[in-house]
Amino acid sequence: ILAPVIALDGPSASGKGTVAARVAAALEFHYLDSGALYRLTALAAVRRGVLFDDVEGLTEVARALDASFVEGVILLDGEEATEAIRSEAIGEGASRVAALAPVRDALLARQRAFQRLPGLVADGRDMGSVVFPQAQLKVFLTATAEVRAERRHKQLIAKGEDVTIQKILEDIQQRDARDSARTVAPLVQLPDARLLDTSAMTIDQAVRTVLGWWETVQ
Ligand code: C5P
């Protein structure tokens, strides 16, 4: 039997990664951070000197990606890359490689391999639309661009990065536009997805809402 899937899609810096990881922990489900695969592809491309306009080169990087996820630690080519993939530059690169259909295809089977018993919480942009269209629960998790910019700003300041909220807001709006307007696997709220706007919610409240919904679809 196929393991059940909770698909959590939404824009960048919406907090869906944190919510997804907590929901997975609460249910003792597996967790797929699909954005990390696009970020790892971007990082591996930079390290190999493959340019972001080289579609064939990027597709090969994605196909040959040597990535592993071990209890919250992310490895690229056997070395820890957990922090390295979180920079703004790599996020930007990820958004560019993610717009390429052959790159997405190359990462598809890898993502589906995470669907194992007792279940999976998958977070990304196209979990409910492309990767796991049969998911038992689909959630579109979002927050206003301003709230997301504030949250991201706090995180980056805590890490010692010197950025203004204004710059982050611009980046977020640009990335939203690119993720939503692209022709392949655009970020959309599906008709069968439940909307979770976390603008005025704590992480705990968001986690409890998703867990409550999960109970109702059981
Ligand atoms: O979610 P995260 O910010 O880590 O994702 C990085 C980039 O990867 C996003 O800007 C988005 O373009 C892309 N992505 C995607 N499909 C997914 C997950 C992420 O296109 N399922």
Structure description:
Belongs to the cytidylate kinase family. Type 1 subfamily. The protein is α/β, with parallel strands linked by helices. The chain has one domain: Rossmann fold, CATH 3.40.50. 50% of the residues lie in helices and 16% in strands. β4 (73-76) and β5 form a beta hairpin. The two termini are 16 Å apart. The relative contact order is 0.22. It binds cytidine-5'-monophosphate (C5P). Cytidine-5'-monophosphate binds at residues 12, 34-35, 38-39, 91, 94-95, 98, 124-126, 175, 179.
Task: Give the arrangement of secondary structure elements.
Blueprint: E1 5-9, H1 16-27, E2 30-33, H2 34-48, H3 55-63, E3 67-70, E4 73-76, E5 79-80, H4 88-97, H5 101-112, E6 120-124, H6 127-131, E7 137-142, H7 145-158, H8 165-181, E8 194-197, H9 203-217
Parallel strand pairs: 1-6, 1-7, 2-6, 7-8
Antiparallel strand pairs: 3-4, 4-5
Helix pairs in contact: 1-9, 2-3, 2-4, 3-5, 7-8
The structure holds cytidine-5'-monophosphate.
How many helices in DSSP terms?
A: 9
Give the CA-based shape.
globular
Helix content: 40-55%
The count of domains is 1
Ligand set: cytidine-5'-monophosphate
CATH class: Alpha Beta
Give the name of the CATH superfamily: P-loop containing nucleotide triphosphate hydrolases
Outline the biggest β-sheet.
5 strands, parallel
Task: Provide the succession of SSEs.
Answer: EHEHHEEEHHEHEHHEH
Find the CATH topology: Rossmann fold
Structural category is alpha/beta
Mean pLDDT equals 95
Task: Give the strand tally.
Answer: 8
Low-confidence stretches: none
Strand order within the widest beta sheet: 2-6-1-7-8
Write the CATH architecture name.
3-Layer(aba) Sandwich
For the termini, the CA-CA separation is 16 Å
Question: Could you tell me the strand content as a percent range?
Answer: 15-25%
* Radius of gyration of CA atoms, rounded to a whole number: 17 Å
InterPro entries: Cytidylate_kin (IPR003136), Cytidylate_kinase_dom (IPR011994), P-loop_NTPase (IPR027417)
GO molecular function: kinase activity
Keywords: ATP-binding, Cytoplasm, Kinase, Nucleotide-binding, Transferase
Subcellular location: Cytoplasm
